[in-house]
């Protein structure tokens, strides 16, 4: 994933708030305003609108997650997944800042892993910044292990670069 992580802006009571029931559907071009609003708020180095548009054009799996009840069309999160024959590469996993720490990221990741497994993928790979402690905790708790490092992969403040950890999890029917 290409953006510099920020620790989630979690309010003190966020983790005790109930996780909304999520519904998922494919991302469409008319979601991009809402997606970019979230993306630019949670990443110092966000994907551009063009990155998302290109992902849709390329036929990557792109999903948006919203509350099943109440909040209407308001997006809570989104993800982009690229298939590489029998594995998937998680390119973007993002939750709206105000909703961090409520179990939404984990629920989205679990759904993505199940969906990929059902459709024939037997592994999921991703890149993450070593400084992104929330994301690393999420992935480790979900069964991912670090399998490599890509040196100076991400942009960082003041023209610096940050490594990426490559993490992988075999998918199964659990
Ligand atoms: C990373 C992200 C997707 C996690 O989503 P979330 O909905 O906030 O996370 P969840 O509430 O589902 O928590 C899942 C696990 O992540 C970890 N986690 C979440 N927030 C954390 C924090 N602030 N500090 C440390 N660990 C944290 C915990 O292990 C948690 O599981 P547990 O509480 O059951 O042990 C979300 O914070 C986000 O969108 N961040 C900005 C974008 C980003 O960095 N995306 C990932 C790029 S690789």
Q: What this model shows, in words?
A:
This protein is an alpha+beta fold. 26% of the residues lie in helices and 33% in strands. The protein has helices spanning 32-42, 49-58, 104-118, 133-141, and strands at 22-26, 61-67, 75-84, 87-95, 123-128, 145-155, 161-170. Strands 1-2-3-4-5-7-6 form a seven-stranded mixed beta sheet, sandwiched between helices. β2 and β3 form a beta hairpin. The two termini are 26 Å apart. Coenzyme A binds at residues 1, 5, 7-8, 10, 42, 93-95, 100-106, 128, 132-135, 137-138, 141.
Into which percent range does the helicity of residues fall?
A: 25-40%
Tell me the radius of gyration.
15 Å
Bound molecules: coenzyme A
* Number of helical segments with 4 or more residues: 4
Q: What is the ordering of alpha helices and beta strands?
A: EHHEEEHEHEE
Q: Report the strand count.
A: 7
* Overall mean confidence score, pLDDT: 90
Quick structural overview:
The protein has 4 helices and 7 strands; from the N terminus they run βααβββαβαββ. It is of the alpha+beta class and 174 residues long.
Quick tags:
174 residues, alpha+beta, 7-stranded mixed beta sheet, 4 helices, 7 strands, globular, binds coenzyme A
């Amino acid at each position: 994933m290409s953006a510099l992580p920020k620790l989630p802006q979690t309010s003190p009571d966020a983790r005790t708030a109930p996780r909304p029931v999520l519904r998922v559907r494919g991302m469409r071009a008319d979601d991009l305003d809402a997606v970019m609003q979230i993306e630019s708020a949670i990443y110092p180095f966000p994907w551009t609108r063009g990155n998302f548009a290109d992902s849709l054009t390329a036929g990557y799996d792109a999903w948006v997650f919203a509350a099943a009840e109440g909040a209407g069309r308001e997006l809570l999160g989104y993800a982009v997944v690229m298939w590489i024959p029998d594995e998937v590469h998680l390119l973007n996993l993002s939750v709206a800042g105000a909703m961090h720490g409520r179990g939404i990221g984990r629920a989205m990741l679990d759904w993505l892993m199940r969906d990929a497994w059902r459709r024939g993928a037997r592994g999921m790979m991703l890149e993450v910044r070593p400084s992104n402690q929330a994301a690393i905790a999420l992935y480790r708790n979900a069964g991912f292990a670090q399998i490599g490092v890509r040196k100076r992969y991400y942009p960082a403040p003041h023209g610096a670069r940050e490594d990426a950890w490559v993490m992988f999890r075999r998918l199964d029917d659990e």
